[in-house]
Amino acid sequence: MFKHLLLAVVLVSCILPSYAKKKEQPPDPAWAGITARGRMLAEYDVAAWHATDAVLAAHPAKGSVTGYVAKKTDAGWVVAFGRLNDTRDKFLIAYQATQGATPEDFKAAQNIPPQEDTGFFYLAFKALDTSRQHFQGDKRPYNASVLPADSNQMYVYIYPAQTKTGIYPLGGDVRYLISPDGSTIVEKRQLHKSILEFDFSGNSPTKKVEAGFHTHVLSDVPEDTDVFYVLTRKPPVPEMIGAGNRLYEILVDGTIIRAK
User: Fold this and answer.
1) What are the C-alpha distances in Å from 8 to residues 95, 174, 194, 207?
2) I need a labelling partner for 252 at 20 to 30 A (CA). Which of 41, 92, 98, 237 fits?
């Protein structure tokens, strides 16, 4: 199955039924990059999910697809499904799924023969492969996403996949910075330490969760996947994060503010 895989780990966390806070100043400009990458991760996840459904409906031949890469264009997301060729110098795109009028609307087209790619999709697929070979996680499903970084480098995120409706994993995730050719890890950033599972399945008007809460032990600011977590959680609620000696809040649109 080609479902978008996830990755794992965070810190001591709990769900807060209610909370009080003193909001200070508007968002620090330095946090804009964290929010932007988190939003892109959430979009990537939605695109991969619905594009995968479209390709699976076409019943691809066994072995024709070993993975996929998503790319955001001016017209929407495009997700290429395929495999590396035998010499591993081309990505053979067997199916290409293109976004329609909404983020959930994807149509898949088969390439006969598979389209040979040596550009973005090939390099991004190599970056994913390089990162997965290095990553060591728990025995559970993980998702992986690749986003553009500065100087033609790429960010690869590996994080735990959701396996049960209403249960949202957070933690044990890693971000790799990969060289432009997709073959070298330039930097590894452990985003959270341990995997925690947050249960929102029982949320109801009589038992309403107003916010989540967790703490960081690896950094003094929220991480990209904290924003991703807030944007993908249903129903949408803010997340309070203790990092360093500060308390942050991630709003339901991914904006980061100082709460204390």
Assistant:
1) 29, 8, 7, 28
2) 98
